[in-house]
Amino acid sequence: MIKALCHPLPCRGPRVLPPRSLPIARGLTQPKSPRLLEQRSIATAKGQVHPSMSSSHTLAKLVFGTDALKLDKLFDVSGWVAIVTGGGTGLGLVTASALASNGCKVYITGRRLEPLQEAARTAAPEGSPGSIIPVQADMSSKEGILRLKEVIEKEEKWVNVLINNHGVSLDVPKINEAEQTAQGIAKKMFDDETFESWADGHRINTASYYFTTFAFLPLLDAAQKVGKYSEPGNVLNIASVSGITKTSQRGQFSYNSNKAATISLSHQLATEFARRGLGIRVNVVCPGYFPSGMSPVDEKYLKPSEEFKQKYGTPLGRSGNAQDYAQCIFGLINNQYVTGAEVVIDGGWLLVQAF
């Protein structure tokens, strides 16, 4: 018996196992096997062989003779209704300005009305292709979110894009790089931190994105059903590279943790909306260093410099600018084939932050 078990089996090459049927989540259909695009070859006058453009599977053939691939069609937001929370300053204002400059009607929110009004006047002056409407709202409470919804429902029948941009970076204890003892680090990070600050950061940076998204879900759905657009409205959440890096960036454990939670929330929302056939896309942007109220970067670093590269560890040697950011935003809110994406725009910062 032992000899039989130990006797080498004859070599017959690799064993091919029959395909297994993977379990499928309830509500999802079995994915079809991918079809290979047919490619035909034709002989040209010079005897060269090229793929035939007569193939019924050629994507380019579908748009020949149209303007579908022109930039103004690929990134068209004219007539859209958008919401940019925290849109009165920083990257939120860049987003609102870019949308309004291209014919979008943009609602921006913030806790203080006067800065919002000033931002609207500056970013979308009279004669602009679009408009910016300031709405005072506290996005960290259900009452504030419902107030914003009430204001917009009185004016609009649908929303094409919801950009959850508001956020807060609370003062946190910083780890002294010279401190190497367990006792010293523990005292600093325990004594100077509070449960309240952790809860506040999570409530504003993550939980409020959840409640805002679900509050506006019917209006996003109505973009297709009522507005007759080719797809429902979509959601874009703004997180940070701080939610991806494995470092605490000298002690901002709370901020980095709730930004990581925002990224996870975005993936979950995208999945749940997809499996229910809603067609509402959800994506998340993770910016690196941009001059804004949430970042210490000076505007002088908009131009490449060795100083910036060494100080901030960004391989491309500069901070991000308004054009960089707007290009990223427009690509995600317009591309109807992208959902659940986590897009990093950081000049390569994460590439060198593994340790």
Task: Tell me what you see in this structure.
The chain is α/β, with parallel strands linked by helices and 355 residues long. It has one domain: 3-Layer(aba) Sandwich (Rossmann fold). 36% of the residues lie in helices and 12% in strands. It contains eleven helices and nine strands. The protein has helices spanning 2-6, 71-74, 90-101, 113-123, 142-155, 182-191, 195-215, 217-225, 253-275, 306-312, 322-334; strands spanning 41-43, 49-51, 81-84, 105-110, 131-136, 161-164, 234-238, 282-287, 342-345. The strands form two sheets. Strands 5-4-3-6-7-8-9 form a seven-stranded parallel β-sheet, sandwiched between helices. Helix 3 (90-101) links the parallel strand 3 and strand 4. Helix 5 runs parallel beside helix 7. Residues 1-26 and 36-50 have low confidence and may be disordered.
Can you summarize the main beta sheet? Answer: 7 strands, parallel
Overall mean pLDDT: 86
CATH architecture: 3-Layer(aba) Sandwich
* Name of the CATH first level: Alpha Beta
Secondary structure tally, helices: 11
CATH superfamily: NAD(P)-binding Rossmann-like Domain
Terminal residue distance? 55 Å
- Strand line-up of the largest beta sheet: 5-4-3-6-7-8-9
